């Protein structure tokens, strides 16, 4: 068999495994809580790796190594910021969100939690948050489909649309039928695949480049500043902007929804250790892969046509074609895990926070699950339409969405969990203000080049929410009782 056939075989096996997991989850899904939140029964390992896999996408295996390959460790600040943000998110948000969402009418989505927590009789927060999620995640999903199409084009020479439809079809199939459980179990396996690939490539690559000493010498020969976090190209504003990516974690629905699904508050501690361990080692693996790529090409001559393919190229050089195919599957895993996570959150927003809240409050669980599956299909079709033209890049919009979610939801989630006096009016005003500031700032070139838009957006959202809440605050016994009950459960479960 040719090298390409071996690699395709690995990809086919990987996709079949994903579909089998989807079928398994389908059999276990009995009601809406199961479909949208896995019945709150996830273990710490599945929770941790599914959150990580949902978060990292193809950026971990292609974007980050490509940036480090070109610019050196100065581009690692974003990885440092993300790690700090993820750790703080697990530490401060995960346990409280798990407890509070159950206390607040067993909320199964972020918008429904805010609605129940703040006693928003107008449903304005729920609907506004649901619409924000629906719009931005539709574009997010389409960006993943674009990545899937380009993956098959660059790896196997397939037509872009063929590759896009293959990736989209498999992801939509297991997400549509298996729901949250399928997404979480596939994300776990995908996270494990990504981890093993990112550890294996640099370890074997180090032997290829003559060990640690020779590798470092070769990297320095290319650029003496390549191994410095504080290279001459680094600026204070640039470092702050990179590290500020970590702020986004507090408001990413497809990540924090995992916290709501874990079995108990107690298990969030184990999940945090697993998740952060996975993240640190995976990021170090991605960085090491890029640096070994620099050393390899310095020693062997030639030039890497596309820096973002350094992981793929090293995998093909180092391993048997079938193993190289598994490395390719790791990239596909990163892409697919993010698409599936965003699809299920978008579906839940459409069903739980718009359809159920406004149009049909009394239907059966079976009906809502059916509508949830229709929602996955509908969002997928719209996303595929947006992704059909590969030249219409939406990467900038994805970057905005991270900032937008972080600025709109992040401060509100933190205040909802830690501050009794947050009001529905304050939360809505902060949410809208944060999103608007992030959007405007990101669209003005002079401002965007000065500072990443999540920083001003996050600050404005926080300030507006606090000020408006203080003005509109009225004591509410039910809210106070739920807040106290949450604190009690946290104490009991520690």
Question: Would you give an account of this structure?
Answer:
- The chain is mostly helical.
- The protein has a single domain, classed as Up-down Bundle (Sodium/glucose cotransporter).
- It has 20 helices and no strands.
- The chain has helices at residues 3-28, 32-37, 44-56, 63-71, 77-103, 110-118, 124-156, 160-208, 211-222, 236-243, 253-261, 267-300, 310-318, 321-359, 365-387, 395-418, 424-443, 445-450, 454-472, 477-493.
- α1 (3-28) packs parallel to α14, α5 (77-103) packs across α20 (477-493) and α8 (160-208) packs across α12.
- The chain is globular.
Structure summarized in a few sentences:
The protein contains 20 helices and no strands.
Q: Which key features would you list for this structure?
A:
Sodium/glucose cotransporter; single chain; mainly alpha; 494 residues
> Counting H and I runs of at least 4 residues, what is the number of helices?
20
Can you tell me the CATH architecture? Up-down Bundle
Reported by name, the CATH topology is Sodium/glucose cotransporter
Portion of residues in beta strands equals under 5%
State the fourth-level CATH superfamily.
Answer: Sodium/glucose cotransporter
Instruction: Give the integer mean of the pLDDT values.
Output: 86
- The amount of helix comes to over 70%
Would you count the extended β strands for me?
0
Largest pleated sheet: none
Shape: globular
CA radius of gyration is 22 Å
Order of helices and strands: HHHHHHHHHHHHHHHHHHHH
- The total tally of domains equals 1
Q: How far apart, in Å, are the first and last alpha carbons?
A: 56 Å
Which CATH class is shown? Mainly Alpha
Low-pLDDT windows of residues: none
Counting helices, strands and paired strands, the structural category is mainly alpha
């Amino acid at each position: 068999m040719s090298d390409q056939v071996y690699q395709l075989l690995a990809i086919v096996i990987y996709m079949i495994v994903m579909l089998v997991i989807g079928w398994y989850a389908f059999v276990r899904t009995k009601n809406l809580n199961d479909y949208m939140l896995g019945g709150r029964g996830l273990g710490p390992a599945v929770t941790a790796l599914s959150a990580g896999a949902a978060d990292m996408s193809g950026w971990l295996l292609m974007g980050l190594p490509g940036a480090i390959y070109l610019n050196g460790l100065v581009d690692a600040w974003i990885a440092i910021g993300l790690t700090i943000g993820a750790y703080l998110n697990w530490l401060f948000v995960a346990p409280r969100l798990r407890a509070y969402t159950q206390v607040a009418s067993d909320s199964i989505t972020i918008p429904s939690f805010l609605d129940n927590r703040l006693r928003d009789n107008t449903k304005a927060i729920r609907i506004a948050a649901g619409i924000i999620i629906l719009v931005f995640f539709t574009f997010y999903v389409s960006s993943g489909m674009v990545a899937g199409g380009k993956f098959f084009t660059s790896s196997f020479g397939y037509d872009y649309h063929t590759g896009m439809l293959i990736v989209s079809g498999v992801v939509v199939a297991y997400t549509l039928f298996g729901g949250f459980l399928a997404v979480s179990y596939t994300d776990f396996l995908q996270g494990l695949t990504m981890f093993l690939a990112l550890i294996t490539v640099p370890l074997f690559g180090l032997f290829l480049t003559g060990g640690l000493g020779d590798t470092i010498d070769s990297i320095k020969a290319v650029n003496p500043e390549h191994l410095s976090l504080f290279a001459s190209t680094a600026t204070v504003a640039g470092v702050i902007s990179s590290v500020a990516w970590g702020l986004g974690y507090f408001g990413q629905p497809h990540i924090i929804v995992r916290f709501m699904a874990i079995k108990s508050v107690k298990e969030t501690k184990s999940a945090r250790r697993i998740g952060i361990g996975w993240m640190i080692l995976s990021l170090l693996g991605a960085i090491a892969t890029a640096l070994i790529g620099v050393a390899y090409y310095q020693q062997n001559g030639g030039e890497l046509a596309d820096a973002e393919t350094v992981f793929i190229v090293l995998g093909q050089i180092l391993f048997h074609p079938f193993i190289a195919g598994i490395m390719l599957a790791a990239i596909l895993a990163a892409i697919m895990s993010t698409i599936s996570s965003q699809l299920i959150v978008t579906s839940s927003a459409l069903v739980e926070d718009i359809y159920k809240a406004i149009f049909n409050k009394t239907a059966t669980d079976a009906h809502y699950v059916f509508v949830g599956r229709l929602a996955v299909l509908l969002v997928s079709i719209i996303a595929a339409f947006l992704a059909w033209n590969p030249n219409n890049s939406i990467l900038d919009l994805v970057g905005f969405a991270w900032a937008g979610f972080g600025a709109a939801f992040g401060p509100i989630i933190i205040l909802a969990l830690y501050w009794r006096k947050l009001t529905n009016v304050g939360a809505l005003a902060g949410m809208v203000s944060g999103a608007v500031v992030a959007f405007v700032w990101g669209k003005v070139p002079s401002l965007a080049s000065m500072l990443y838009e999540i920083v001003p957006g996050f600050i404005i959202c926080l300030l507006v929410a606090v000020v408006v809440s203080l003005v509109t605050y009225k004591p509410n016994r039910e809210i106070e009782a739920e807040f106290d009950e949450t604190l009690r459960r946290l104490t009991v479960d520690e």
